[in-house]
From TrEMBL:
Entry keyword set: Auxin signaling pathway, Disulfide bond, Endoplasmic reticulum, Glycoprotein, Metal-binding, Receptor, Signal, Zinc
Binding-site list for Zn(2+): 87, 89, 93, 136
Organism name: Acorus gramineus
Protein name: Auxin-binding protein T85
InterPro entries listed in its UniProt record: Auxin-bd, RmlC-like_jellyroll, RmlC_Cupin_sf
Gene Ontology terms describing biological process: auxin-activated signaling pathway; cytokinesis by cell plate formation; positive regulation of cell division; positive regulation of cell size; positive regulation of DNA endoreduplication; unidimensional cell growth
Signal peptide positions (record): 1-28
Glycosylation, residue list: 125
GO MF term list: auxin binding; metal ion binding
UniProt-listed CDD domains: cupin_ABP1
Disulfide-bond pairs as recorded: 31-185
Length: 193
């Protein structure tokens, strides 16, 4: 190996280490309660579809990202025609619809499978809560307008069980944990209370 290629290989390793370090620091800042100001501007919080088409999710206050212990607050926007998966979780969940309109599909946890869900129209300025463990799905049924909701859950981080359809047995629903938006901060060390 010549001096030139040795030098460029050292430089490359150095740059790689720098990149890894920067990534770690940025990630730690996003996943730590200590680095964040008390009052935060919603427009500056991370927002992403986390790989789910037609969704925009923002964790306003989260267990993994902000050290919340009892509740977690999300701002979610579902594009026209898009929907959440059919899913359940063993925590309380409260929705406040800020914009748009859609349909809540809600089934029961008491039979072997969810079965045919009940339909509830939802629209801006309505609120509803999902009974613990009841399978549900929120669909934006409007052709033009986004459906935007403020969502509060208890017992974070959420453990979601996903159904393929309403007739899949409860025991066959697949656990998705950490959930899409929790994956990023799942392994970072947590601040002490
Ligand atoms: C929702 O409530 C706000 C505040 O009271 C009001 O300005 C808005 O018109 C309401 N929207 C609908 C669709 O009722």
């Amino acid at each position: 190996m010549g001096v030139r290629s040795l030098a460029s290989s050292i430089l490359l390793h150095f740059l790689l280490l720098l990149l890894l370090y920067e990534f770690g620091v940025v990630r730690a800042a996003q996943c730590s309660t200590k680095e964040q100001p008390l009052v935060r501007n919603l427009n500056e919080l991370p927002q992403s579809n986390y790989g789910r088409e037609g969704l925009s999710h923002m964790t306003i206050a989260g267990a993994l990202s902000h050290g919340m212990k009892e509740v977690e607050v999300w701002l979610q926007t579902i594009a026209p025609g898009s929907k959440t998966p059919i899913h359940r979780h063993s925590c309380e969940e409260v929705f406040v619809v800020l914009k748009g309109r859609g349909t809540l599909f809600l089934a029961s946890s008491s039979n072997k499978c969810p079965g045919k869900p009940q339909l509830f129209p939802i629209s801006s300025n309505t609120t509803f809560s999902i009974p613990v463990n009841d399978p549900h799905q929120v669909v934006n049924t409007d052709g033009n307008e986004d459906l935007q909701m403020l969502v509060v859950i208890s017992r974070p981080p959420v453990k979601v069980f996903i159904y393929d359809d309403w007739f899949m047995p409860h025991i066959a629903a697949r656990l998705k944990y950490p959930y899409y938006w929790d994956a990023e901060c799942f392994d970072s060390p947590k601040d002490e209370l």
